[in-house]
Amino acid sequence: MKDHLLVGIDLGSSAIRVAVGQISVGQDRHETLQIIGAVESPSQGISKGSINSLEDVISSISASLEAVERQVGLPVSEAYVSVGGTYLVVQPAKGVVGVSRTDGEINEGDVQRVLDSARSVVNPANYEILHILPRKFTIDGQGGIKDPLGMQGIRLEVDAHIIQGFSSHVRNLTKAVFRTGVEVRELVFAPLASVEAVTNSKQRDVGVAVVNIGATTTTLAVFEEGDFLHAAIFPIGADHITSDIAIGLRTSLDIAEHIKRTLASANADSMSRFEEIDLRELGADHEEVVSQRFVSDIAQARAEEIFEKVEKELKKIERSGMLPAGVVLTGGGVKLQGMADTARQVLRLPVTIGIASSVQTPLSEAAQDPAYSTAIGLVLWGYGNERAEVEGKHGGNFGGKGGQWMKKVSDPLKKIFKSFIP
After folding, report:
1. Whole-number pLDDT of residue 232
2. In angstroms, rounded to a whole number, what is the distance separating the alpha carbons of residues 158 and 34?
3. Lowest mean pLDDT among 343-347, 352-356, 361-365, 407-411
4. Range with the poorest average pLDDT among 29-33, 366-370, 386-390
């Protein structure tokens, strides 16, 4: 894998972010992954994670790829691409099969068949399955098994989560990337990539929630005992805070965005009523003076709404206030001052801002920017999968066997990729 580029493309509604990783081998023959490129460019033609103008998206992706190729000095030929938006569904499923060997030893074929059995239960028309995430296996009534390979039994069962996307949504994203001349190596559910970048195995073992606040959507992913437990997507994000400020101040979206980024806080109590903002000094065509506290009250109301939706989901899975590793906030929307404070108040859990601190990179700004967590997570995802392939081992992501099984069950997606080859 030395000198091989690993590329992650995060297709967001406000920005397209591309991260490039490269594997190097030191004198001690130890293999390391280093992020050597990271760029961000405005996104056009994407709304709430879905494409509404194919040509605009192709142009935006091309601009990002050209910029990162200039940065790293090498061409990009393939990439791992994030899939997000409200057109994705996460559904629990169960599968049951009989063990094939007469001596009862469970092999890879048995595991694959039980996952296919789970898949057949929830394969509605017009949806493409992106991942099958096995949680627990059961052998002859003995539950709680993470890896059944080599064990003895007659009946094999699996509890899994199936992540699927609306077919047209998946195909349009794939086509947009392919039209830029880049092969889609794998489509990855965006929250899984974020988790890969901003959490470690210990956090995922004891229980952690990752909340990614984007421009127009917010995603929640919950892990416990090292396994994916729950996910949710909310059609609300940081752009809604900007819109609220624009309406409240009767000003333009550009000025509202500037105020949000530099002067507002999602924790209004931390702001003084006597600190004032003159909109004319920010470019408004009329003079109006407002307090920073008033603007922050607007921002806090929308931030509380986002976290209340997260709290509702945690209550649904009986994890409200019950995640020892707390909540990790990431995504461009969490750069608003005071977001972590408001999250602590609403969720009653420890809250940290998640950045990709585990990777080596000379690009410290990108590594410290939560907006890049998904793009860098895609690179880490690809590294885990490709390393497992090269070494001929099971494994991959999240410290378990999930990565290998997920790759196998996502093979049908290759038919979609190939359908765009002329």
Report:
1. 94
2. 36
3. 407-411
4. 386-390
CA distance 58 to 43: 10
**Side-chain-facing half-sphere of 40: CA atoms under 13 Å:** 17
For residue 136, give the CATH number of its domain: 3.30.1490.110
Q: With 70 as the cut, is the pLDDT of residue 1 above it?
A: no
CA angle 394, 400, 404 (to 5 degrees): 35
Distance CA 111, CA 107 (A): 7
Cα–Cα distance list, 91 to 37, 158, 163, 168, 314 (Å)? 35, 14, 7, 19, 16
What is the H or E stretch that residue 233 is in? strand 227-234
Quote the tokens at residue 305.
């709404």
Among 104, 105, 15, 139, CA closest to 67:
15
CA dihedral 408, 410, 412, 416 (to 10 degrees): -140
More confident residue, 283 or 28: 283
Q: Helix 402-409 to helix 373-391 angle, to the nearest 10 degrees?
A: 90
H or E element in which residue 300 lies: helix 292-316
Q: Residue 258 corresponds to which amino acid?
A: H
User: Model confidence at 404, in pLDDT bands (50, 70, 90)?
Assistant: very low
CB 180 within 8 A of CB 58: yes
**CATH number assigned to the domain comprising residue 69:** 3.30.420.40
Using an 8 Å Cβ cutoff, are 213 and 333 in contact?
yes
- Burial label, 151 (beta-carbon count in 10 A; 0-12, 13-18, 19+): middle
Per the DSSP assignment, residues forming a β-bridge with 107 are none
> Which residues neighbour 30 within 8 Å (Cβ) at sequence distance 6 or greater?
none
Whether 69 and 186 map to the same domain: the answer is: yes
Whether residue 217 lies inside any domain: the answer is no
Domain interval for residue 340: 233-352
How many CA within 13 A on the CB side of residue 1? 23
* Pair (74, 177) in one structural domain: yes
Give the Cα separation of 422 and 409 in Å (integer). Answer: 25
Same domain, 155 and 194: no
Q: Which residues pair with 128 in a beta bridge?
A: 165
On whether both 296 and 386 belong to a single domain, the answer is no
Same domain, 245 and 176: no
